[in-house]
Amino acid sequence: MTPEKRPPVWPIVLLPAGVFLAALFLGRYGIRIGDTVRVLLGLDGPSDVFRSLILRVRLPRVLAAACVGANLAVVGAGFQGLFRNPLVDSRILGVSSGAAFGAALALLLTHEGITVQMSAFAFAMAAIGLVMLIGFRFGSSTLVLVIGGILVGALFNSLLGLIKYVADPLSTLPTITYWLLGGLNATQWADLPALLATSAVGLSFFLVLRWRLNVLTVSDAEATALGLRVRFLRGAFVVVGALMVAASVSMAGTIGWIGLVVPHVARALTGPDYRTVVPASAALGACTVIVLDTIARTALPTEIPLGILTGLIGVPAFFLLLVRFLRARGEIR
Amino acid sequence: MRRITFAVIAVALLAWTGIAQSERTIVDQAGYEVSLPDSIESIASVYGIGTYFVYSLGAGDRLTTAYYIGLKSAAQATATMQRWEPRLSDLLSFGDPNVEELVAGGADVVLADASQHEAVAAQLRELGIPVVLLSAEHPDAMKEAIQLLATALGEEAQRRADAFVDAYDRVISCVAADVSPIADTAPVRVLFLGTSASTAIGGEMYQTNLIEAAGGVSVTEGLSGGWNEVNLEQILRWDPDVILIAPYGPVQPSDLLEHADWQSLQAVQAGRVVRMPRLIAPMDTPVPESMLGVLWMATLFYPEVVTLDLADEVVAFYATYYGVTLTDEEIAAFAFQ
Question: ipTM strictly over 0.90?
C-alpha cells in the first residue's frame, strides 16, 4: 500500500454509538435525562410509562434506523464499486422499486408487518434477478446492468401504479402512499428480527470481504488474474446487497439516496480504499438515518415522513459536506 | 369517418336537446349555472358522497352509474349494503371519471365532486351534459348540497330534503342541549384514528366537526391537512379519554386494548376504545349518516345525559332515508358494551 496518511477509522465507527445513545434521550414525551439514564441502567425509580417508552418504543426504532442507514450506505458503496459507476445505488438497480411493489402488493392483500417485509424482500430479489438476467444475456457490462436496472425499476413502478389504482382509496391507498414516503413510525421489537438478522449477516459479509471490492472495482480481467472468481463474487455481493436493501426498504420505505450520497462522503473522508470506505459508510449511514428519524419523530406533533426529511435536510447537508471535503482535497475548485 | 360524423351528430343532438329542454337553471356549489331538463329521469354520480344524497332523496332508482365512497367492488360492501341496493354491482364505478363513458351512459345529469372534477365537468358542459358540482366538506355544506340536489330532482325530493335538514338540525341541537353543561366545562378529549393505529385526523377534517357537535374535543385539532401520521409518544402526551377508530381499515379496538405499549393510556385503561359501526356509508364522512355519527359519539361520550335514544334514531334513519328495515343484529352494532 502507499504510505499516504489516512485519518483513523475509529472515530467514525464510535460516532454511531454516541448518536444512538443520544437519540434514546429524545422524544415527544418529555422524559428527564436522569430518568432515561436510570431506565437504561435498569435501576428502579422511573415509572412504567417511561420504561415502556424508552425500551419498547424508542430503542427498537433507533435500532431499526441504525440498521437501515448502515445497510443502504454500505450496499450503495459496494454497488458503486461493483458496477464501476459512481451514480449507482440500490434504487438505480431496481431493487427498491421491486421492494416497493412487493410491499404495496402485501399491503393491498393483508396488513401484517411480516408479510409486507417478506413480500418486499421477494420482489426486491425478483428485480435484481431480472437485472442480472439482462446482464448475463447481454454481456454484463456496467452499462447494460444500469440500463437493465432502470428498465426493471420502471416496470415495477408501473406495477406499483396499478396497485395504487386498484387499492381502496379510503383505507389501503393512504397506507401505501404513506409507506412509500418512508418512515419508521410504529416500529416494534416484533418487526425487528428479520432486519437485525439480515443486517448482521449482510454487514459482516461486506466488512469481511471488503478488500475484495478493491479488486472488483478494477477490470474483470485483472481481478481474474489476481485469482478471484469474479462472476461468483460479484453475484454474491449483489445478492447479499439486495437482501440488505430489501430488509431495509421493507422496514423504512424507499429512501434510496442514502446509498448514493453517504458512500461519497465516506470516500471524501477516508479515501477510495474499500477497507475503510465500507466501515465508514456503515457508520455515517447509521448516524444519518438515526438523526433524521429523531427529527421525524420529535420536531412536530405529527410524524414527518423520513423520505421527505432525507431529501429536504439530508441532501443539502451532504452536498455541502461533500463540496467542502472535495475542495480541501483539491479535487474541485 | 362515419364514426366522427356520428359523434358530431350525437353531440349536436345532445346540445340541441339540452337547449330545447333547459327550462330551469340552478347554481351549483362551485358557482356554475347549470341548465337542467324539466324532469331528471337518470343520474350518473361520480361523487362518492353525493351518491348517498341521491338515495336519501328517494331517487336511488334513477342512478345509472354511481361512485360509493371507499368502494371499489360490490364484494367489499357490507351485507346491509348489498341487501339495500341489489343493483350495486351494475351501478358501481370508481377512479377517474371517463367522459366518453358518461356521455355513452346518457344520464340526464352528472353529479361530480367540486374539489376533484372541475376538468371533467368542463368537458361534459361542452358536450351539453348538465353537471352539478357538489362539495360537502362541512355539515352546512352537506345540507346545502342535499337541498341543491333536491331542487334539481323535483318536489318529492325537496320535501324529503327539508325533512332531512329538520331531522339533522333536531339531532344536533338536541345533542348540544344535553351535553353542553358537561362539554363546556370538562369536554371528553378524543383521538380519532384512521386506517392504522398511528393515523389520526387533521383539524379541518369532517370528523373534527362531528366530535365537536357531540361535545368532545379532538386532541389532534391543531394538526393541519388530511390524515396525519403520529407516534405513540405523542399519543401518550395527549392521553385522550376516548379513542375512536374509523369504520374502514384493519384497526380493531383489541389491537390497542391488548397491546402492552398502549396500557398506560386513560382511554385504554377505561376500555373506551371503540370502532365506529358501519351499515351502509361510513358515518364519519359527510354522508347523511353523519347525523347518526354525532348522536353515536355523544351517547358514547356522555351516556348519562343524552336523551335521544340511539337505537330508535338509527332504525328511523335507515327506514326513512334508505328504505331499509334493520335486523336486530344490525341495530345491535350501534350499542356499546
Answer: no
What is the distance, to the nearest Å, from the Cα of residue B276 to the centroid of all Cα atoms in its chain? Answer: 14
Grid cell 392483500 is found at A109
List Cα–Cα distances, B101 to B56, B115, B123, B209, B224, in angstroms: 26, 21, 12, 36, 37
Q: d(Cα A28, Cα B239) in Å, to the nearest integer?
A: 13
Per-residue pLDDT at B10 = 58
Extract the C-alpha cell encoding A121.
424482500
Interface contact flag, B264 A171, Cβ < 8 Å = no
Query: In degrees, to the nearest 5, what angle opens at C-alpha A295 toward C-alphas A289 and A298?
Result: 135
- pLDDT tens-place string over residues B183-234: 999 999 999 999 889 899 999 999 999 999 999 999 999 998 888 989 999 9
Nearest CA-CA partner of B43 in B30, B56, B54, B31: B54
Residues B225/B304, Cβ–Cβ less than 8 Å: no
Least CB–CB distance from A48: residue in B222, B264, B282: B264
Q: Pinpoint the residues of chain B covered by CATH 3.40.50.1980.
A: 2-135, 162-332
Which of B262, B235, B44, B25 shows the shortest CA–CA distance to B148?
B25
Asked whether the beta carbons of B228 and B203 are under 8 A apart, the reply is no
Do A57 and B220 lie within an 8 Å CB cutoff? no
The answer to the question of residue A72 being in a domain is yes
State the pTM of this model. Answer: 0.81
CATH of B2-135, one of 3.10.180.10, 3.40.50.1980, 2.60.40.10, 3.40.950.10: 3.40.50.1980
Residue A333 lies in a domain: no
CATH topology of domain B162-332: Rossmann fold (3.40.50)
The reply to whether residue A168 touches residue B220, judged by beta carbons under 8 angstroms, is no
User: Are A49 and B264 a contacting pair at CB < 8 A?
Assistant: yes
Measured in whole angstroms, the distance separating CA B111 from the mean position of its chain's CA atoms is: 14
Select the residue of B76, B223, B261 nearest A52 (Cβ to Cβ): B261
Report how many domains make up chain A.
Answer: 1
The CA-CA-CA angle for residues A37, A20, A75, to 5°, reads 165
Q: C-alpha angle B196/A62/A24, rounded to 5°?
A: 110
* C-beta atoms of A175 and B196 within 8 A: yes
For A180, other C-beta atoms within 10 Å of its C-beta total 18
Beta strands B33-36 and B24-27: pairing type?
antiparallel
Mean pLDDT confidence for A291-305: 90
User: Which of the listed ranges A124-128, A248-252, B180-184 does the model predict with the highest average pLDDT?
Assistant: B180-184
User: Reduced to 3 states, what is the DSSP secondary structure of residue A197?
Assistant: helix
Q: What is the mean pLDDT of residues A19-47?
A: 87
Would you say residue A5 lies in a domain?
no
A165: closest chain B residue by CA: B95
Say if B261 is an interface residue toward chain A (CB within 8 Å).
yes
Nearest Cα neighbor of B103 from B213, B1, B17 is: B17
pLDDT given at position B166 = 96
Residue A94 confidence class, pLDDT cut points 50, 70, 90: confident
Q: Which domain holds residue A102?
A: 10-328
Tell me: the pLDDT tens digits for A123-161?
988 998 898 888 778 876 667 877 888 899 999 999 999
Asked whether residue A255 is domain-assigned, the answer is: yes
Least confident of A192-196, A255-259, B16-20, B104-108: B16-20
